[in-house]
Write a structure and sequence with these properties.
By secondary structure, the chain is an alpha/beta fold. The chain contains ten helices and nine strands. Helix 1 links the parallel strand 2 and strand 3.
Amino acid sequence: MLVISELRGDVALVTINRHNKRNAISVEVARALVDALEALPSQVRAVVLTGAGSSFSAGADLGEDKIAGNFFAEFFKLTDALRRYPAPVIAHINGPAIGAGMMLSMACDLRTIAPAALFRIPLVDMAIGVDEWTVSTLSDLVGGSRARQLLYTGAASEAETMIEAGYGLSAAHLDEALSLASSLAAKAPLTMRSMKTQFERELFDAPARRNAMMAAFESQDVSEAARARAEKRPPTFRGL
């Protein structure tokens, strides 16, 4: 299987299972990841995405024709699926995230970074055009100056540098990413969904963003939060 999905309570672990290819993203892998996200049950409140073995993803499969084929169309369907997913998605970057692999991690809501992680977007060495989302998102995540350095030079950045730049949180092991996911899963799910629509304004129009905001405001979870504060206990949110 190219992608393995596991349920751990209300957290889903989705793993790119192509270690022999350093988890390179092919058209089939991109489609399998979209299918995996769409197949997750509604009770999932957080997702961790990672790579099998020692790499997060070495990027696009070099054996495929990127221009004549439909790789880019399928890849951006995948990034859109991650950005639209109603619950937070955490990329656990356990090793190198190169090119499309780094862009895959950029499409997630949060990132945890292991010491072995390495980041690079070598578009200038591959004569590939750069889309607006890649530039704007990378600039948002690490700042315009560092984004320019990464994109114009195609140079690699190590884990510590990217953690210091704010790209992600330090997490030596997958269990730490899963623990973060569990903590997010306990938060108010409709508020999480509303936040995603606000961060992804390119994908959600003003009525959709307002509807998501009002769904949180008008939910039973607002009353549950008040009761939990009064009773000095953690709230139990139902997303209703």
